[in-house]
Amino acid sequence: xxxxxxxxxxxxxxxxxxxxxxxxxxxxxxxxxxxxxxxxxxxxxxxxxxxxxxxxxxxxxxxxxxxxxxxxxxxxxxxxxxxxxxxxxxxxxxxxxxxxxxxxxxx
Length: 107
Description:
9% of the residues lie in helices and 21% in strands. It is mainly β. Strands 5-2-1-6 form a four-stranded mixed beta sheet, covered by helices on one side. It has a two-stranded antiparallel sheet with strand order 3-4. The longest helix has 10 residues, at 63-72. The protein starts with 6 loop residues before the first strand and ends in a 27-residue tail after the last strand.
């Protein structure tokens, strides 16, 4: 496969469903788009292809580092930025019983 056809995807992966905090969630990943279609192996029934780059995932601390790696290796790349999420306003348990509260009960 020639280098000029390889398209890399640079993105920040979302947190897993088991992760509630923000630790270890700021990294960036460079992965490659598949260069050829998968085909079914007649003997085993598994799908596969000869494209080994689609198995490669490189992790970087910053977006700029991932872009610098792609530029240094002559890769075309697309950067995908996730939409911002609303900040959660911390509340105390005592807010539920505050005098003059106008909101409805949530439970």
